[in-house]
C-alpha cells in the first residue's frame, strides 16, 4: 500500500514539474516571439469577451426568470396576457385605469364576450373598474373615442364613488 502512495506522489511531482516547464517555455516564447504574443493576446481577449458576454447573458436570463416573469404574474399585467395572446385568461378587475383607457378597444375586439360581461358586472356593482389615476378631463376626452363611452361612463361613476 505504501508503494502505491509513493508512486502517486512521484507522479504528482513529475506532473507539476512538467507543467512548470511548459509554463516557462510559453513565457519565454511570449516574450521573444511577436507572432506568438499577438496570437496569445488575441485569443485571450476573445476568451475574456466570451466570458463577459456569457456572464451578462446568464445574469440577464436569471434576472428575467427570477424577477421579471414572477413580477408580471404577480401583478397580472394585461400586457403579459395580450403579448402571449391569452385574451381569454386576462383578468379585467385588476387592470389599472390608464391601461383600461388605452386598451379598451383591444379588449373589446379580442375578447368581446368576456369584456362585455365584465363591464356588465361593473355596471351592476358586482365588479369594480379602476379610475384613480385618471383625471376628469381624460375620461371626458375618451367619450369621443369609438366604442369608449361605456368604459368612460363606468370610470366616471367610479371616480365619483371615491
From TrEMBL:
InterPro entries: DUF2828, UCP015417_vWA. It holds the Pfam family DUF2828. Residues 7-55, 58-161 form the DUF2828 domain. PANTHER family: OS06G0652100 PROTEIN, TROVE DOMAIN-CONTAINING PROTEIN. This is DUF2828 domain-containing protein. It comes from Vitis vinifera (Grape).
Amino acid at each position: 500500500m505504501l508503494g502505491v502512495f509513493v508512486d502517486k506522489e512521484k507522479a504528482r511531482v513529475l506532473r507539476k514539474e512538467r507543467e512548470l516547464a511548459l509554463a516557462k517555455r510559453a513565457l519565454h516564447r511570449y516574450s521573444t516571439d511577436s507572432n506568438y504574443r499577438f496570437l496569445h493576446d488575441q485569443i485571450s481577449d476573445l476568451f475574456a469577451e466570451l466570458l463577459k458576454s456569457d456572464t451578462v447573458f446568464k445574469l440577464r436570463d436569471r434576472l428575467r426568470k427570477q424577477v421579471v416573469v414572477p413580477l408580471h404574474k404577480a401583478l397580472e399585467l394585461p400586457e403579459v396576457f395580450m403579448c402571449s395572446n391569452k385574451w381569454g385568461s386576462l383578468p379585467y378587475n385588476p387592470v389599472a385605469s390608464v391601461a383600461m383607457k388605452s386598451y379598451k378597444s383591444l379588449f373589446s375586439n379580442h375578447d368581446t364576450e368576456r369584456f362585455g360581461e365584465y363591464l356588465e358586472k361593473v355596471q351592476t356593482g358586482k365588479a369594480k373598474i379602476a379610475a384613480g389615476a385618471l383625471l376628469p378631463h381624460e375620461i371626458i376626452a375618451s367619450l369621443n373615442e369609438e366604442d369608449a363611452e361605456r368604459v368612460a361612463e363606468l370610470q366616471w361613476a367610479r371616480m365619483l364613488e371615491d
